[in-house]
Amino acid sequence: MQTYPKKLLVIITEAALEKRLIADAKRLGAQGYTVYDVRGGSQHAIHEGAWEADRMIEIKIICDPAVAQAIADHAMVQYAVNYGMSVFFTDVQVIRPQKF
């Protein structure tokens, strides 16, 4: 089976940003996304999701590298200063590239 290279962009951030980040991602070229409710901790905080303002999400977007970079750059400039956010990329292989 033939595969095609893409980037997986993962953004872990505060749930309050979900609608804005999804709109931004679509505007910047993302074809689709997946959102999960997540919990976790870091040096700076523990997010247990016990109350609405403590909810965290993970957004996964598979797309072309340039689109992933544009979304990540936008998220870091627009939101990371005022919201908790982790962003990372990984290389992935997909079977149906037209979906991404």
Helix content: 10-25%
CATH fold-level name: Alpha-Beta Plaits
Number of domains: 1
Q: Largest sheet, described in full? A: 4 strands, antiparallel
Mean pLDDT: 90
Number of helices: 2
Number of strands: 6
The ordered string of helix (H) and strand (E) elements is EHEEEEHE
User: Judging from the principal axes of the Cα atoms, what is the shape?
Assistant: globular
Strand order of the largest sheet: 2-5-1-6
The end-to-end span amounts to 17 Å
Structural class: alpha+beta
Which architecture name does CATH use?
2-Layer Sandwich
CATH class designation: Alpha Beta
Question: What report would you give on this structure?
Answer:
This protein is an alpha+beta fold. The chain has one domain: 2-Layer Sandwich (Alpha-Beta Plaits), CATH 3.30.70. About 25% of the residues lie in helices and about 40% in strands. The chain is built from two helices and six strands. It has helices at about 20-25, 65-80, and strands at about 5-15, 35-40, 40, 45, 55-65, 85-95. The chain has a four-stranded antiparallel beta sheet, covered by helices on one side. A two-stranded antiparallel sheet has the order 3-4. β3 (about 40) and β4 form a beta hairpin. The longest helix has 14 residues, at about 65-80. About 20% of the residues are buried.
Summarize the structure.
24% of the residues lie in helices and 38% in strands. It has 100 residues and is an alpha+beta fold.
Question: What topology emerges from the helices and strands here?
Answer:
Layout: E1 4-14, H1 18-27, E2 34-38, E3 40-41, E4 46-47, E5 56-63, H2 65-78, E6 85-94
Antiparallel strand pairs: 1-5, 1-6, 2-5, 3-4
